[in-house]
Amino acid sequence: MWWTAIILGLGGSFHCAGMCGPLIMAVPAKGNRVKFIVKKSLYNLGRITTYSLLGVIVGFLGEGLDLAGLQR
Question: How far apart are CA 35 and CA 29, in angstroms?
Fold first, then answer.
């Protein structure tokens, strides 16, 4: 069953390269090294925060369906 993890990992990496790669390349890298690091860090912090909040919202919606007896 280890091959399923490899297949899912490869599929996820293609998704990340196709979707996240162009987004990170869109962040300007001009300026000194400190500005570069700050800009990249802020970008990734915003991305992680957004995905986390979306996960919480979907989790609460799923919990609401479970409490209503619509999902088992």
Answer: 8
